[in-house]
Write a structure and sequence with these properties.
219 residues; alpha/beta; 10 helices; 6 strands; 53% helix; 14% strand
């Protein structure tokens, strides 16, 4: 909590109605206050630069930057900022990606009215918040890794490669990606070639499957 007042919250979701509903849940608590709102991950990062915030509540699936990408950028920008992921997806892959991105908790939208306030307070006390199904997922994941000896390298892609991968998976052409990221088509093509080589993949279809598994785009 901030020194003199309630926990200052940045809320990011690309649906205005969802933001309004979540804001109602948070603002009725005396120790919580939404001080900034964003409609996508990139705007959330901008808002964090221009507002004093203690906690970011981020939807996972957003345009431009996903909540997962925004969480990683926010961790680098403001190391003390706590992050909660808010999602409609009870999805193990997203859950693990959220933990890797530095999130303190993972809250399902379907039970936000029950869990979100407690998750906010837990995050500010440096306590992880896990919805019930996530505990089972963690145990299952750990046991699977032990049995198989499988280790997936973290952060093998650069942030720019991740951005290109997300846009490729969303069906954008090289020309469109170049315009969206303000880079040359040749640079986009180089990033695509690097992605295929790094990930050991062959084509756009396999890149898209990888992006879904990595939580960059929705299935």
């Amino acid at each position: 909590m901030s020194a003199a007042g309630p926990i200052r919250i940045l809320l990011a979701d690309d649906h205005a109605l969802v933001r309004r509903g979540v804001r109602l849940i948070l603002d009725r608590e005396p120790d919580l206050a939404v001080v900034a709102e964003a409609g996508d991950g990139a705007e959330a990062v901008d808002m964090a630069r221009s507002h004093e915030v203690d906690l970011a509540v981020l939807d996972i699936a957003m345009p431009r930057l996903t909540g997962l990408q925004a969480a990683r950028e926010l961790a680098a920008l403001k190391p003390g900022l706590r992050v909660l992921m808010l999602t409609m997806h009870d999805n193990e892959q997203y859950f693990f990606q959220a933990l890797k991105a530095g999130a303190s908790g993972y809250v399902l939208k379907s039970v936000a009215d029950r869990d979100l306030v407690a998750a906010c307070r837990a995050a500010m006390n440096d306590e992880p918040f896990l919805y019930p199904g996530a505990v089972s997922a963690l145990i299952r994941h750990y046991l699977d890794r032990v049995r198989s000896g499988d280790e997936t390298p973290d952060q093998i892609l650069t942030p720019r490669e991740e951005e290109v991968l997300k846009l490729v998976a969303e069906g954008h052409s090289s020309k469109e990606i170049a315009a969206l990221l303000s880079i040359s088509i040749k640079t986009v093509q180089r990033h695509r070639a690097n992605l295929l080589q790094k990930l050991g993949l062959r084509d756009r279809t396999e890149l898209t499957r990888y992006a879904i598994r990595a939580g960059l785009v929705e299935p």
